[in-house]
Amino acid sequence: MLLSLLKEYLEIEDTSKDVLLNILLDMAQDIIKQYCVIDALDDSFNNAIVLLAAYLYNMHSKEGFNSISQGARSVSFAREIPDFIKAMLPLPKVRVV
Questions:
Q1: What pTM, to 2 d.p., does this model score?
Q2: 59 near 78, Cβ under 8 Å?
Q3: In this predicted model, what pLDDT tens digit does every residue of 51-95 receive, in sequence order?
Q4: Which of 7, 27, 38, 56 could form a disulfide with 12 if both were Cys (CB 3.0 to 4.6 A apart)?
Q5: Which residues contact 77 (CB under 8 A, 6 or more apart)?
């Protein structure tokens, strides 16, 4: 289900990138679980998972770069969950050990 949502969001119609997209979906789920300090995600996280996986997909080819300048244009890349995705997530829990 998440794969089909991600492919729809990215406008990918074939199956050539399915392995990569599944890896990115798994990574997005792990990142969100770590950020929220929870062990499992329910369906209410689906939109955030898809958006984060799409963000990771778009950053995939730019890995290792913090910023790129081309002429008068400059683009910076975040190294954490973007704020627009954090806004969709519950506040992180504090775990007492």
A1: 0.77
A2: no
A3: 999 999 988 766 555 555 667 665 555 557 888 888 898 888 776
A4: 7
A5: 59, 62, 65, 66, 67
